[in-house]
């Protein structure tokens, strides 16, 4: 453990990598990452900001129900607004500027992360940590993405540095409390990480009550007040997002709609996904700590174990949820690697480090350039295709798992679009089993297309397909009971003011998600839906709907590589673009 330091901000700086080098590496990562990761990168940030500034777009149910804070989105919206008033709102800048900003924030977080590890251990360990951090494929893959999890990790790095550790002279410092407060507003599950650390701060102070009421309460109330003001203004009515997040995502178990994993998933799959081959030294350190009954900075060990236990009790799990724990895991990985460096020769250590860098670099290149790249490339294809069309009302139909691509933030054209929605069951009165629109579609794609865009009634369809072996969804039930949304927004340049309907104006998430959408209450209305100009789907679906495409004069216009290894059966190796031709 390092001795007390009165000037921790400069301690060991001469051992750390220079800022220009960290910046250069992260900019390189920014230029390399050209792939799709998760929907939240766009649908919980860029799409919302685009809707705020340009007055059209699609808002998912999370924003309709008010479980997400606008604090982070407002920063992206400010960038969009600046581009708008300067008449520089080219789609390339709308895509690039938020990612560049996020990269710069990640660079700042890198600096604080390494300084914190230097503070908690020694300069040589911090130097080793900086090498590991900049070589990490996971961090490189996520650092430039507009994910709230990346922002949460960035804020955690800074807050850990400013935390009043026992060996640092910061007894009454509240800087970290402000960062933690806003971090918990942006991502309420951050409370899980910071609860033991804040309790430790309180109980080790000489006057716990004074610490609570003089520091914690004012900061907490100020952050909550800021949250309520900003979120209510953008939402158009009173909104307290932390409670809505807890009520819907945690207490009601709505997040489980998007997949669940067994309790041990974070230990067996999540941590290895984040740390890669460094999982080995991390687990070795953990086993040694248990055997010795001693761990560097026990409060961090307790915090790490506590978080993993709580996270494991939540059904919906993703490895990006572990990003906020990365600083603590990196500290212990670096300590173990430093310990090994004294046990093996310099040559072997250099070999291990070189192998790690090569493996992580190869993984990053594959994930960034060859895995799930079609989701972004197809938006460029669609953008070019529809910018050159005279018919401004030409629509696009995405027959893909919900949110498989970005939307208006990468199109920046006010044309009708339709995606397969996947809202969870927000109504307790809904008869189970509940099915979202995407599930209904994939049960029988041809049936769905004929009932939405066909030229025959449901009865005629059933008669014409009575000999088929396929089992169809019950007519008039699953389709008509589902929420179907068509994004055909009216463009209104309402800058920095959300024109979204309030929650009491409609009971349908689809109705509230975007202006111009219409809930179709019975299957007869589906038959009058105009055919789109363009259909986008994965190649695995083509053989199933080829007859419908041919019948309606859709011809293949583009075939874009997506991935060598589709992660589920509904995905494919290629993204296909079909367009209607004149009859």
TrEMBL record:
Region of interest called Disordered, as start-end residue ranges on this chain: 462-524
Coiled coil: none
Keywords attached to this entry: Endoplasmic reticulum, Glycosyltransferase, Membrane, Transferase, Transmembrane, Transmembrane helix
E.C. designation(s): 2.4.1.-
EC category name: transferase
One GO MF term attached to the UniProt entry: alpha-1,2-mannosyltransferase activity
Any Gene Ontology biological process: GPI anchor biosynthetic process
Bias type Basic and acidic residues, positions: 462-475, 504-517
Keyword Cell inner membrane listed: no
Similarity annotation: Belongs to the glycosyltransferase 22 family.
Protein's name in the database: Mannosyltransferase
